[in-house]
Design a protein that fits this description.
alpha/beta; Ribosomal Protein L15, Chain: K, domain 2; 2 domains
């Protein structure tokens, strides 16, 4: 759910009630059917009852800053019946297991970057796939960074990842949306988002989320590229943000199964719990881009 116009949001009879300003029709949505809400305007009021219902039902709500960029989120606590046991296992992970899990995430990320390039007809895709095959436990040669440098040069012309242009705006918005979905999935699976397998920043409460985000990033990249080519302008607008919020409805594969991105975040988080419990990185399921669209 993407809210971009001024409105009052409340909760009544297990329904999310959206009352737009200006006398427009009031809309209602069953709270159990909503997985995420993105507030794309500061001109929204919410009731305490609604916030409680969202937390109880595991709905991730993303709130904006003054520039409409995602700035924070509402997450639920204690969603999983075995949360304490899972948290203790997560914290007790051995370093070899952490390294093998990171290896698998990096391999999946580079393979998905290769799939994006293959979808636009770039012959460097095979080089990236070969690079993915060389990633060792813990990625000691930092092939993730090497692949990223080559990838960005070929995905966009005259592009620097940290420039403040519309393309980076599209990317950052899409990443923030998927990050929120992964945070929701980790909480629902009983995982502690602050304790990553590779990311270790003391200032980052979502280190694990940022680990799991890596193989999902190329799906955002592909959607952002298509949007940038469809309409050329200098700045991100509300239509762009709404378009990128749709990333959670895009298809991605987990093994032989094709899922929405939202469902895939849940599958990946659940499989990570299995990998941690079993001490086996092979149990972690990673997302793979289906046959890429050309564009």
């Amino acid at each position: 759910m993407h809210i971009s116009n001024p409105a009052r949001l409340s909760h009544r009879s297990r329904q999310i009630v959206v009352d737009p300003e200006g006398g427009s029709e009031i809309l209602t949505f069953p709270v159990e059917d909503v997985a995420w809400i993105i507030l794309d305007t500061p001109q929204v009021t919410l009731t305490g009852s609604l916030l409680s219902a969202l937390a109880e039902n595991g709905v991730a709500m993303v709130v904006p800053d003054a520039r409409h960029h995602p700035a924070g989120m509402l997450l639920s606590f204690h969603q999983h019946h075995a949360q304490s046991a899972i948290a203790h296992s997560q914290i007790a992970m051995t370093q070899p297991l952490r390294k093998r899990l990171w290896q698998k995430l990096v391999v999946a990320k580079i393979e998905n970057q290769a799939a994006v390039l293959r979808g636009i007809g770039h012959d460097y895709a095979d080089t990236l796939s070969a690079m993915a095959a060389r990633v060792g436990s813990g990625d000691p040669d930092n092939l993730e960074a090497q692949a990223a440098r080559a990838y960005w040069q070929r995905l966009f012309a005259d592009f620097w990842r940290h420039d403040e242009d519309r393309r980076n705006g599209l990317l950052n918005y899409g990443y923030a949306v998927v990050r929120a979905a992964l945070a929701r999935a980790c909480a629902a699976s009983g995982l502690l988002p602050a304790f990553g397998v590779h990311h270790r920043s003391r200032a980052n409460p979502f280190n694990l989320v940022d680990d799991l985000l890596e193989p999902f990033r190329p799906a955002v990249d592909r959607l952002a590229r298509l949007r940038a080519l469809q309409e050329e302008r200098d700045e991100l607008d509300v239509a762009d943000r709404r378009h990128m919020a749709g990333i959670l409805g895009e298809n991605i594969a987990i093994g032989e199964e094709h899922l929405t991105m939202l469902a895939a975040t849940e599958a990946v988080a659940a499989s990570l719990v299995q990998a941690i419990d079993g001490g086996n990185a092979a149990l972690l399921n990673t997302p793979a881009l289906p046959l890429a669209r050309r564009g």
